[in-house]
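[Discussion] Sanity-checking designs against the backbone

I'm trying to build intuition for which residues belong where. Below is a structure token string of 346 positions. I'd appreciate it if someone posts a full sequence so I can compare it with mine line by line.
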């Protein structure tokens, strides 16, 4: 004790994570001044920023953001179930500034970190998000739509991450993320197996199907339209998002073929916008080069053109279906792969 004061070392500082919308410079300065005052008052402040310099800072940021997801939770009730989709839309709109900051960090990770560190940080981040796709353990009545906003958000983040990695040709990082399984406590998922493939990040959203019908929108996939509309505030283009979605579909298809099961399939909902492509998807157009094909094939756990031929044969022979459910057949696999031109150049 010193003059009646308790030494700082004996007190644990309160911790605060601040996330905010970057509306203008005046608002950013106000946030900066607030942080400075809080720090002076002894608060351990973590600011949601897009300038992280070390692996440790990135890891800490991802962990803080994962906890911050709780603030976006919505819940259905008997009174709101008919218009629950309105709350869904408001929730994902409110998430946009956070999404943009997260994807900026994705870009830093993919640009500056080596494959092992990037894969570990990104895998751990998405693993922390999976519990939000399941209702919290509580005594309240649960509805099947309760977590649809989280499912949409996590699916969108994963698409944007893969799009960024593809743009930088970080094929080895993509291979690691798609080849990994993600741990979820059995008490949360109620599944016998606590390990899930990457395809867990895709889900059919019944609340959006309900909204499509309730408002008479007549859209093939409202989920897809929302994904595309939200690109206006993103560095990802429509073509890049479709390419990302198709890569995830293709890896899921290769895994299903190898395991002789339809479990763990990825449904590429953005392919309703296939007209954005008049040619094969970019990475397959580039794969006319044998060297490029060999380099990028690691994403799919295969090595040669013959592996892609075998996959096309499985679909054409009826062993596998491209899409089912509400989406219908959206594309010709051989056409979108440009299969006849693969590996025809050095």
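Best answer:
Here's mine. Compare freely.
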């Amino acid at each position: 004790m010193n003059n009646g004061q308790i030494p700082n070392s004996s007190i644990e500082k309160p911790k605060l994570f601040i996330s905010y919308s970057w509306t203008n410079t005046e608002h950013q300065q106000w946030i900066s001044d607030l942080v400075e005052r809080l720090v002076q008052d002894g608060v351990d402040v973590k600011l949601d920023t897009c300038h992280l310099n070390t692996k440790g800072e990135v890891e800490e940021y991802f962990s803080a953001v994962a906890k911050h997801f709780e603030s976006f939770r919505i819940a259905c009730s008997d009174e709101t179930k008919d218009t629950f989709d309105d709350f869904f839309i408001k929730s994902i709109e409110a998430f946009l500034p956070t999404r943009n900051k997260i994807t900026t960090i994705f870009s830093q990770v993919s640009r500056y970190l080596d494959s092992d560190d990037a894969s570990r940080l990104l895998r751990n981040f998405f693993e922390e998000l999976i519990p939000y796709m399941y209702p919290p353990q509580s005594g309240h009545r649960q509805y099947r739509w309760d977590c649809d906003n989280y499912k949409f958000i996590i699916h969108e983040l994963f698409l944007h991450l893969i799009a960024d990695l593809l743009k930088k040709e970080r094929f080895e990082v993509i291979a690691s993320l798609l080849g990994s399984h993600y741990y979820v406590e059995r008490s949360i998922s109620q599944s016998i197996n606590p390990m899930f493939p990457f395809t867990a990040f895709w889900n059919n959203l019944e609340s959006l199907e309900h909204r499509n019908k309730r408002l008479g929108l007549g859209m093939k996939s409202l989920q897809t339209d929302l994904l595309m509309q939200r690109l206006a505030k993103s560095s990802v283009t429509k073509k890049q998002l479709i390419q990302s979605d198709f890569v995830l579909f293709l890896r899921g298809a290769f895994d299903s073929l190898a395991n002789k099961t339809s479990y763990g399939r990825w449904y590429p909902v953005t392919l309703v916008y296939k007209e954005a492509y008049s040619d094969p998807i970019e990475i397959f157009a580039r794969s006319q080069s044998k060297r490029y094909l060999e380099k990028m094939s690691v994403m799919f756990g295969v090595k040669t053109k013959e592996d892609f031929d075998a996959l096309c044969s499985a679909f054409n022979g009826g062993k596998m279906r491209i899409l089912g459910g509400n989406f219908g057949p959206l594309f010709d696999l051989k056409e979108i792969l440009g299969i006849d031109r693969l590996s025809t150049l050095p």
